[in-house]
Amino acid sequence: MTTKHEQIIKYIENLEVGHKISVRQIAKELNVSDGTAYRAIKDAEAQGLVNTIERVGTVRIEKKQRSDIERLTFAEVVNIVDGNVLGGKAGLHKTLNRFVIGAMKLEAMMRYVEPGNLLIVGNRDNVHRISLERGAAVLITGGFDATEKVKQLADQLELPVISSSYDTFTVASMINRAIYDRLIKKEILLVEDMLYTKQELIYLHEHDRVARFHEKVKETGHSRYPVVDDSKRVVGIVTAKDVMGYTADDLIEKAMTKNPIVVTPKTSLASAAHEMVWEGIEMLPVVNEQKRLIGVISRQDVIKSLQYMQKQPQVGETIQDLSFRGFEEISDRQGNIMFRGQVTPQMTDSLGTLSTGVLTSIITETSLRVLRRLRRGDMSVQNFSLYTLKPVQLESTIEIAPKILDLGRKQAKLDIEVMHEGQVVAKALMTAHTIER
């Protein structure tokens, strides 16, 4: 039986794109409390089904595929630039293909204005009108208003006209930053990216007999299954090892491991892999917000996906990449690998010395690069101890020398020294787990 929360989510999914909803409307139509409606709408927003805009309301939007994650909707642009919608609210759910800065003459500008674009321009009424007629939305900078004719045209064409108090350069930078952040996010694999929703879901019920477990093993060839209750909520995991010593008539709930580790579709694959390796787990159940089973992932599938992503080009740069930019690999007299780089202004704290956080990031990255040469697969840092001995000033050249103390099949220990002008300025001790297939 579905809950009221799930009924609301299903109702929202069936609404047309662009439909406006509210807490009161949902509560009245589905006969639920305002609180239940509010929580469900927030959940729908987290799932990418709706978007809430200040002074406009909540609008049903098209859920984006991972391939389109870098494409912003006009509703998201409103939130990014702290904008005010002057007209064309019905088109807020549409996505923009690209934005054009209108810092040129009208004739030259119109060569770049196409359907699906967003024109960023100041208080040029004629430009606003022509842009809408060509199928492009308008973002007016400097806090200026639009004429009533432009607002009416925007409503008629369902193309948003947005006003922002920021200047053109700031607005363009904010939108560009949002797209850039999404490109990085796109490269982070989530459990939902490898979850096969069309595949038959195999599980056992807590009131099943152990005999049912043996039947499933013969049918599928698998040796571990999630166990659910009457509401399909995950209550345990049962494996071939668990049922040893139990008769065929014993209940599964007696043999299963209770309160298992579960993941959600939004869990990163790196986190899932860490849980599997650290806890020695071969399979993890995937659950929704109500803790109901929606799929399973295996350790082999997770590692395959992570290894595939390692071969793909990086689109956006993370803080880790930016911190390590400018460092080069060198070798000392004994042939040991070292890394040399300069402390840039972005790497310093308020006192002008190398930030502890950046130092930790650089040490971690150099150590993992050394380990990857010796081990295939991904690495996960388990313990890290940093000892800062001396402050490192801006524009100082530092050398980082990771030394492997112990390298086992699944674990590695390293001692890392950071040197400046031949003196040790920081030391670290790190333990990492190797994730192998």
Over all CA atoms, what is the radius of gyration? 28 Å
Main sheet: strands, sense, barrel:
6 strands, antiparallel
- The fraction of residues assigned to DSSP E strands is 15-25%
CATH level 3 topology of the largest domain: Udp-n-acetylmuramoylalanyl-d-glutamate--2,6- Diaminopimelate Ligase, Chain: A, domain 1
Give the overall average pLDDT: 82
Q: Indicate the overall shape.
A: flat
What is the count of helical runs? Answer: 15
CATH class of the largest domain: Alpha Beta
Report the span from N to C terminus.
40 Å
In total, the number of domains comes to 4
Residues in helices, as a percent range: 25-40%
Q: Report low-confidence residues grouped into runs of 5 or more.
A: 311-316
Which secondary-structure class do the elements indicate? alpha+beta
Spatial order of strands in the largest sheet:
15-16-18-19-20-17
Question: How many strands appear in the DSSP assignment?
Answer: 20
User: Going by CATH, what is the homologous superfamily of the largest domain?
Assistant: HprK N-terminal domain-like
CATH architecture of the largest domain: 3-Layer(aba) Sandwich
InterPro entries: CBS_dom (IPR000644), CBS_dom_sf (IPR046342), Diverse_CBS-Domain (IPR051257), DRTGG (IPR010766), HotDog_dom_sf (IPR029069), HTH_11 (IPR013196), Ser_kin/Pase_Hpr-like_N_sf (IPR028979), Thioestr_dom (IPR006683)
Keywords: CBS domain
Pfam family, one: HTH_11
Please describe the structure with a list of short key phrases separated by commas or semicolons.
alpha+beta; Arc Repressor Mutant, subunit A; Udp-n-acetylmuramoylalanyl-d-glutamate--2,6- Diaminopimelate Ligase, Chain: A, domain 1; CBS-domain; five-stranded mixed beta sheet; 20 strands; flat
